[in-house]
Amino acid sequence: RVPTPRSSDASGRSIWTFLSTKLSNFQNSLPPTCRVPTHQKLGEDGIRKTASMIAREVMRFWSQVDKLVQHRRALQDEEEQRRKRSQHLDLLVNKTEQFSKLIAADMQGADTSEAG
Description:
Helices cover 78% and strands 0% of the residues.
């Protein structure tokens, strides 16, 4: 139900003016945390300010996402480097083990040929 203006309120004003006055009075009676921000009441300038705030929030969000993606990529790169270093270390240990077995076999062969 739309309230109708009193005759004193309606003189020279439209129903929309009356309703906007009622709305602003209602908003002024609300606690500050529930009120519509002032820039939203200003029309086109308010829309620009709101759009600017939203754009800043979106930019902040995507910059945080970008930081998160960079961090995850860095972790993946570190894990890949660890894996490669581990494989290289295993290769070196295996080659060293083979070489030392070869030297031990040569030394045992040399000892048996000298003893004989």
